[in-house]
Specification:
Layout (H helix, E strand, L loop, with lengths): L11 E4 L4 E4 L5 E4 L7 E4 L5 E4 L26 H19 L4 H16 L8 H16 L10
Antiparallel strand pairs: 1-2, 2-3, 4-5
Amino acid sequence: MRRCKNCGGTDIDVDQARGDAVCMSCGSVLEDNIIVSEVTFVENSGGGSSAVGQFVAGDSSGNVPSLGGNFHTGVGRESRAATLQNAKRQINHLGHQIQMNQHCLDTAFNFYKMALCKHLTKGRKSSHVIAACLYLVCRTEGTPRILLAMR
């Protein structure tokens, strides 16, 4: 059984699509950039076999291939992926303003992903949810920060 090295929790979310393992108790990233080591083969009509896989670009730009070229820009992009990308950008922006380190920003992003999965973001302003995630990290890490709302 796999355990979190930070809190000792055993509820670990391994997402092969994202390539990471996250503790669902404290939000810590346990593994990042996981590469699947399984190789799958298929048999072709001529009796030969070939490996099945997907090309992974070295630049890791995160671009999602879309069908039909430039006809419908962004058709292949999911709403959830756009929400997560926007949240990560906002968390990094606000976190850098209050001088938080990258580990704390990653943990705050994981809290956001957990809130999104449990539908706790519906009906709430994204800026409030992001501030709450950063505040959670400050409290759990013992980092003295004050988040004030400016109007």
